[in-house]
TrEMBL record:
InterPro entries: MFS, MFS_trans_sf, Sugar_transport-like. The keyword Transmembrane applies. One of its GO terms (molecular function) is transmembrane transporter activity. The keyword Transmembrane applies. Keywords: Membrane, Transmembrane, Transmembrane helix. This is MFS transporter. It comes from Archaeoglobus fulgidus. The chain crosses the membrane at residues 41-61, 152-172, 178-202, 223-241, 247-268.
Amino acid sequence: MISFFDAKLGERLSKRLAYGKIAAIPFLASQIWLFEKLDRSAFSILFFLAFLSGIASVYFLRKVEDVKSKRISEPSLILPFKHSNFLKWSLLNSGFCFSLSASRTFFAVYVLHVLGYPIWLVLALAFVAHLSSVYSLRFAGAISDRFGNKPLLAISVAFFDLSIILFILSNFNASFGILLFAYILHGFYTYAPNIAFMNAVADMTLRKHSAPFYAIGNWMQDIFSALGSIFGGILLVNLAFLGEKSYIVLFLFSFTTSLLLIPLLRFYDEFGQSTSNALINMPRLFFEDLGKIYRELKHFFVSRIKSKESEL
């Protein structure tokens, strides 16, 4: 059996997450159709379907084989708190989760009530972000393997800040293209940090029990995400007298706090390339990856044609 660490880890992690995103595409498309036809009545149907899906997932989880690991250490929830480099990495990721959630939670509200778009179009934009995330996960895995996890998180922060600028500009410019580009970027910066975090933890815990590190790291990110959403809501309520401009203030807060994380990344110790080098080489990596996709698709279709010809 091939070891998980025999292949490029970022590529393996990104593929696993991307398969889940691809499987969800039909369900997201059905959401848009339901809201276009039933408007608010679609909520009850979707909640019921989500309940059934959750019940069904338990059945499939029971079918997953529990593989015994051969680690040199015993699992302990205290161990991650003794690992200074892990704590630095988790705090940086959690800080980004706070800034991200403070604004992202209210993106849909902003598009609905400030920009005045219908709910089905908001869902369509979310669908675009979902499609973007499928490729973004693949590209994020390539960045992680080629340049490191620190540059990947820095690029995610930069894309988030660019998206914030586009959301702000959409309030002054009615161009739908600006909003569309913001949601395309959304697909990258929302999911790429997951690859960076998982890959970094795997590197730090090689031949050790990684579960406590993932548990503590995910717990910290969830807490900071919740605090970010709560803070964003409180800020909007207290700035209600500003009207639509309250969203701009919130977006600028997220922009500033996330931007401050980039210089703090130097405190995380990782063997990898610099962020500037990653940014310079990103276009080349992108076109290399497109070429790889083309060759994979070409090989797939040629093999399908040959198999059909052999059957005749």
